[in-house]
Amino acid sequence: MGATGISKNEAAAVMQVLADYYRAFSTLDLQKILPFFHQPSLLVGQQGVFAVTNHAELAVVFTPTMEGLRSRGYGRSELSQPKLSLLSATAALVIGVAERYKTDGQPLDRAGVTYVMQKTDAGWKIAVIVLHDPGVAAPGE
Fold it and tell me: Fewer CB within 10 Å, N or C, the chain?
């Protein structure tokens, strides 16, 4: 994991927030993931672009995803191959691969994911998520 910019402490803080987010997401409890998101936030994927202004709207977007994962025997997610760039004192970019596993530990699926993180008074929050091909490399690679 490379980090450029502000400090190793900030880089560690960003990565800790994402690790905590993945742990929360793995429960498939919608209420546990909402606090990780900035209000407003932006979600970009194959289904289109969703601009959500609050946690209630975010819940509407995430509910079908979580229900679909639950029906497929989802067990947990991990962020692998993270590449971090601290863009400023309040913005960070993380590109990686979201690895999803079934409850029995078998691979379920994987997707490339890019996070734009925003530092707020409450700490680092996810401002933007972009889902993409897992082979997409971080800029400069």
Answer: C
